[in-house]
Amino acid sequence: MPSARPEPARTLARATTPRGDIALRCRETQGGGTAYELIVGGVFAMDTVDVSTEVELARLGLAACAQPRRVLVGGLGLGFTARAVLEDPRVADVVIAEIEPALVGWARDGLVPTLTGVVGDPRVRLHTGDVADLLTGDETFDVILLDVDNGPSFLVHQDNSSLYADPTLARALAQLAPGGALAIWAAQPEPGLLARLAALADRLGGLEVREIARTVEREGRTLTYATYQALAAG
Questions:
Q1: CA neighbor of 118 nearest in space, from 133, 128, 108, 105
Q2: 145-173 burial, b if ≥16 CB within 10 A, otherwise e?
Q3: 57 — phi, psi (to 5°)?
Q4: What local confidence, expressed as pLDDT, does residue 5 receive?
């Protein structure tokens, strides 16, 4: 007999925001497990099918810093980047910025297991708002991880384009502690972002810029993701 077809995605929660509708759904995977997915403004944003690059974003940032005690995570998402940060025993303080209050509420309500563990960790401070609000120079961080959108060429929200522009990048670099690391996730290679970071490094001095690309197989598709790092001198 042919195998049963997976059930369609089921909506667990939905909210209307100034940026459009946001929905949390779950569905059966091809392997028979359960995947959670986030839909923003009618556009697929992320799911839990393959979170290896979200985890890698955290691990690369932490590995580049000798003492990553204070970490800023831009974007709560489904919690995998933040969870990977919290698995590092060197981390003492994590600030997570999430612009969607509904997602923060769903996390606190326990709708996604990964999010429940993250928001319940005593080291976590949740900022409900734009991560750009925290890039003001008032605090310094050992590691800054930005996974707010899909990258400058594949935006879910056009307003996020400013995150990848020189003024915001420069502010983020200015808030790195000595020996700190900035890491930015993108859904595809972004040569323009790499060039902007390299130009800022030349102008500001004391920075090393890297591009780390990774190819993954995801439900029959081959995708290449990229992480961009700027490392401050110790």
A1: 108
A2: bbbbbbbbeebbbeebeebbeeebbeebb
A3: -55, -45
A4: 52
Q: CB–CB of 177/141 below 8 Å?
A: yes
Tokens of 68: 């990553």
Closest CA to 83 of 111, 124, 50: 124
- Rounded Cα gap, residues 9 and 156, in angstroms: 20
The pTM of the full predicted model, rounded to 2 decimals, is: 0.92
What is the distance between the alpha carbons of residues 192 and 101, in angstroms, rounded to a whole number? 31
Distances in Å between the alpha carbon of 187 and those of 28, 120, 144?
24, 28, 18
Q: pLDDT tens-digit profile of 79-105?
A: 999 999 999 999 999 999 999 999 999
Question: What value does the mean pLDDT take over residues 182-202?
Answer: 96
Higher pLDDT, 164 or 7: 164
